[in-house]
Amino acid sequence: MLGRLSLENQVAIITGAGGGLGSATARLMAARGAKVVLADYILVAARSVEAELAATGATALAIQFDLGDEASIKRMVAETIDRFGRIDILHNNAADLSPEVGQNDHDILHMDTALWDRVFRVNVRGTMIASREVLPHMLAQGRGAIVTMTSSLALQGHIVQNAYSTSKAALIQLVRNIAAAHGPDGIRANSVAPGLTLTPAVRRVFPEAVRTLVEKETLRDQMGEPDDLAELVAFLASDAARNINGELIVCDGGLTSHVPDIAGYRALGKKAAPDQV
Ligand SMILES: NC(=O)c1ccc[n+]([C@@H]2O[C@H](COP(=O)([O-])OP(=O)(O)OC[C@H]3O[C@@H](n4cnc5c(N)ncnc54)[C@H](O)[C@@H]3O)[C@@H](O)[C@H]2O)c1
Hints:
Elements: E1 11-15, H1 20-31, E2 35-40, H2 43-55, E3 60-64, H3 70-84, E4 89-92, H4 99-102, H5 113-141, E5 144-149, H6 162-182, E6 187-194, H7 200-205, H8 208-217, H9 226-237, E7 248-251, H10 262-268
Parallel strand pairs: 1-2, 1-4, 2-3, 4-5, 5-6, 6-7
Helix pairs in contact: 1-9, 3-5, 5-6
Nicotinamide-adenine-dinucleotide binds next to helix 1 and helix 7.
C-alpha cells in the first residue's frame, strides 16, 4: 500500500533518464504507477530503459533531446503533451558530465570561458527552460512537482569542478524562486544534492583512491547507490511531500554534515576525542 507515495496515473518527465541516477528513478517512479518520459541526449540509452520498463508492463516513452538547445527542449515537452496530455512531474536530472568538461573544469585561474558557458548553457539555462516549458501545463492542472538534481559540490568549496559546482549552486536558487512564485498555485519545486554516488559511470571513471577519500568522510558503511537517490526523488515528487516546497535535501550519507577533519580525528584514535582537546 503506497498511500500518498503512489504516482498512479501521473506523467513524469525524467531528463537524463538513460543514465545511472535517472534510470534508477525512472524504474522506481514507474513501479509506483507513473507514466514515464525518458528524455535523454543519447536515444539508445533512453530506449534501453524504455524496453526494460515496457517488459514490466509500465508505460514509458523514450525521447531524444538536447538540454543545451531551447528548441529541442520545447519539442520534448510538446511530444510529452501530444502523447499523454499532461505533465505532473519534471525531474531535472540531466547535466553535462562529458569527459571533456570534467577533465578541464578546474580552478578560476585556468577556467576556459567557452567551457564555463557550455556548462551553464546545459545545466542552468537548459534546466530553467525545461522548468519554464512545463509550468504552463502544471499551472493549468493546478498541480505539479519539479525535482531538480544539484550536487553536494554546490555546498562547499573545492579545487575541482568549479563550473559544474557553481552551475549546481545556481539551480538551488532557481528552485527556490519557482517555489516562491508558484507554490500558491499548486506547484512544488525542490532540489536534491547527492554526494558521490556509485552509478556505473562513477564506478568506471573515479579512481579507487578518490572513492576511498570520499568513503572515509561518509557517515555510513558505504557510499550511496542510485536507489538511495531514486527513493528521495520519488518521495519529493509525490503527494507524501505535499508540505515540502522550495527546499534542498542533501543525500550524501552525512558527508557534508560534519567538521571537515573528521577522518583525521578517526585516524588519531579515541585519544583525540573532543573532551581531551
Ligand atoms: N553520480 C553522482 O555521484 C552524482 C553526484 C552528484 C550529482 N549528480 C547529478 O546527478 C545527475 C545524474 O548524474 P548521473 O551520475 O546519473 O550521470 P550519468 O552520466 O550516468 O547520466 C547523465 C545523463 O544525462 C544525459 N545528458 C547529458 N547531457 C545532456 C544533454 N545536453 N541533453 C540531454 N541529456 C543529457 C546523458 O546522456 C546521461 O544519460 C546529474 O545532474 C549529476 O550532476 C550525480
